[in-house]
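REQUEST ID: PR-0412
SUBMITTED BY: lab tech R.K.
PRIORITY: routine
TASK: structure prediction, single protein chain
INPUT:
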Amino acid sequence: MQELAHVVHRPRVLIVDDDILSCKQLEKYFSPHAACDVRTDGRSAVEAFAQALAEGSPYGIVCIEIVMPGLDGSQSLELMRAIEDEYGVEEMDRSRVIITTGKNDPKSIFQAFFDQHVFAYLVKPIKKQTIETELKKLRLVE
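STATUS: complete
OUTPUT:
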């Protein structure tokens, strides 16, 4: 009897922050559990997001800073959700969004959950344990 090879799907994470040190830290935290792509601006993040969907390998998680120059995190997320709509991605299959920001404002937090359908809102500095807790909630780690 021939054994079937088991393919373990490694989720993809898109990390978006204009602070390269924050990107490197998040990449270090996520990389044992997921394949990471890093973008330092909203425009290139939206392009990477669209390309991933077009190639049939969408990002399972988008970890994004809200406050960025140019196309900010909220605008980027709005465009990403519109791209998912264009591709007919069902609500339960959409990318899980984790906002990472230094902005600890209850109004912003509520707006993010309501408007952008975010999974988590993490205030910097972010610890490795915090990321691991969120990954457990997403059932990406035990």
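NOTES: The chain has one domain: 12-133.
REVIEWED BY: pending
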